[in-house]
Every structure is written in structure tokens, then in C-alpha cells.
Amino acid sequence: MRIVFLGPPGAGKGTQSLRLAEHLGVVHLSTGDVLRQSRAAGHKIGLEAAKYLDQGQLVPDELVVEIVASRLADDDCTRGYLFDGFPRTLPQAEALDKLLDARDAPLEAALEFMVPHEELLKRLSQRGRTDDAEETVRERLRVYAELTRPLANYYDDRGILRGIDAVGTLDEVFARIMLAVSDLS
Ligand code: AMP
């Protein structure tokens, strides 16, 4: 299956997407993870991206699209994939569509994680990642609302969007995800 996870930072996409990808036997692709790893390894892309990550800004579209395009070319992606934190802008969504159209393998599901604002702030203040400082968190939430949230409409128009109530235990949220996925598959 081919799935996109949408949702603000702190919504729990990372944990749930790993679990779902394992359950479905598909590739888990988090552009945030790739960027952090690339930075830690001292690679050019990661070092270039670092200044954006530290300020809670999105890295340029070309850069993440390049990461995704090269990963999609790998053999293991033929069974499907789950994108976590990508796409985050309309140009990224359009670029992804092009890549997938070329493979005749369109997206089948877009799941939007929904968490009240106060709950997100609480979760992010407890997480302790380097880009979880209060200022940066506020900026990442603002960027999400402005640039990423509109993607929900983009996928809703196509009939593949499902909202996920992401407040609850890990198992409760996972059960809601499974319900949405089976509805769309
Ligand atoms: P995440 O782990 O998904 O929260 O991503 C952490 C940071 O990596 C973001 O705040 C951005 O700076 C960068 N990033 C990850 N994915 C993308 C993307 N699809 N487009 C632009 N920037 C991204």
C-alpha cells in the first residue's frame, strides 16, 4: 500500500508510522529521519539542511524531493511505502504525484493526525529533541498550519483523506489507523 501521514509536529506520526509500516510490510520513509541521519554523518545534504532544521523551517523542496526520488528507486519500494513527514508543501505533493504517476502507482491513503493545540505544546515540551525548544516549536507549528495543512484538502479532493483522532493510547490510535486503512484499501 502507498500511504502519506499528515499531521503537526508532536502528533505521534513517527511512532505510529513505524508500527504501521512494519504491520503492512512496506518501506517507512521519514524525510526528517533521513535529514537528521545525513547531518550526523556529515553528508552534504544534511549539513545544508541543518540551518533549516534548527530554526524550525522547512528545507527547500528540491532537496527533499531528491531524497524521496532516490529512495523510491530502490527495489524494496515495489511493495509499497509509508511517507512520514513528506510531502509538507503543495509543490512537494505535486512532485510526489509525478514520481508515482511515472510508476503507475498512485497514493491510496492520506491520514491526517488530529491533536488539539494545547496537547501538542505539552507533548513537544516533553520530547527533548534539539528542534523542540519553545521558539522553534512555535515556528514549526506555524509553518505546519500555513504550508502543510492545505495538503489535507488536496488529498480530500481525491477522496483518499481520512482524519485520525490522535489522542489516546498508542493502541487506541493504531486501531483507528487500521480502520481507516482497511476502509481505503
Ligand atoms: P520531522 O522529523 O518530520 O518533524 O522533520 C524535522 C525537520 O526536518 C523539519 O522541521 C524540517 O526542517 C525538516 N523536514 C523534514 N521533512 C521535510 C519535508 N518534507 N520538507 C521540508 N522540510 C522537511
For the biggest sheet, the summary is: 5 strands, parallel
CATH topology: Rossmann fold
How large a portion of the residues is in β-strands, by DSSP E?
5-15%
Unique bound compounds: adenosine monophosphate
Output the structural class. alpha/beta
The count of β-strands is 5
What would the average pLDDT be, to the nearest integer?
A: 95
Count of discrete alpha- or pi-helical segments spanning 4 or more residues: 9
Overall CATH class: Alpha Beta
Order of helices and strands: EHEHHHEHEHHHEH
Overall geometry comes to globular
Domain tally = 1
User: What separation lies between the terminal Cα atoms?
Assistant: 8 Å
Q: Say which CATH homologous superfamily is assigned.
A: P-loop containing nucleotide triphosphate hydrolases
Which regions are unreliable across 5 or more consecutive residues at pLDDT < 50?
Answer: none
